[in-house]
Amino acid sequence: MAVFMNSQIDNTGCKIRVAVVGASGYTGVELLRLLVNHPAVEITALTSESYADAPIEEVFPSLFGMLNLTCKKFDAQEVAKRADLIFLAVPHKTAMTAAVELHPSGRKIIDLSADFRFRNPAVYRQWYGVDHAAPELLKEAVYALPEFYRQQLTTARLAAAPGCYPTAALLGLLPLLKREIIDPDTLIIDAISGASGAGRKPDLPLHFAELQDNCKAYKIACHRHTPEIEQELSRAVGREVLVTFTPHLVGTVRGILATMTATLVTSKDAEQLRALYHDWYQDEPFIRILPEGRLPETKQVRGSNFCDIGLAVDARTRRVIVVSAIDNLVKGASGQAIQAMNVMMGLDERTGLQLAPLFP
Question: Which residues are catalytic?
Fold first, then answer.
């Protein structure tokens, strides 16, 4: 890991006016937690359909004394008037409608839902069950994984923040795929998530008594992040890549731990592969390649924008095992969205995100 510097904030010293549409969800409040301390940002508008006309410090007492704003119902013209950049932290299918209304204003938009992650509207229809409301905008949207799409983000008006599982999987796998180290047809991805990845809406499987002291697989062979992972892996190698992806839910609040295996097509050992990762990510401020003998843990990245990556080689089966860990609400959602904002607005990429992980 090394320090990466983008261009600095413009010499006028003016702060970027930012709106959060959908401020009352987990990704919304995580955006606010990070943005209130961002030196180049002024939060100027918040929306929430569930908490319209409620002060945000009443919705989230953790923000008491830190942000004096009231949530309003979404009005595209009013939001565009108040902000230079708008985060959409609303559910899938809702975000694309909001983006259509906001797009004519010329404001920059970062969507945290899945609505603009897919390049093919037919794939969105297949996995989300509805026709896309703005298929023409899919061509414009930039997939906001800064480590691989930084240049495109510098000129983007519409950015699609990746999902949490895809972030962990892609950051762990893309260096090997792009260097043709592994056979993409042998990829298996198993990942574990904390409960906050399911959002704030109450749901019986997420109740404390149901979730605590439990670990279970879910949505096997049909999780919506599968086509997102496959899209980006296919783009990396220039042909269709299909993966076996199995997500698991555990009784924790935050964290993604992804374990990925594939067959090696070279004779490289773990030391050589670790050197490859160091070389690939040497200019990336939020990627930490762990030394031999250490593997990622969710608690070691909690509350931070880091992605920790470790690996091992099974010489007996000629397979590599890559493990990555992220905080699903930070690097897997709101922190990564702010990282993308920094790139889009010409800021030092680390601005507002230089937070050590919380421990214990």
Answer: 164
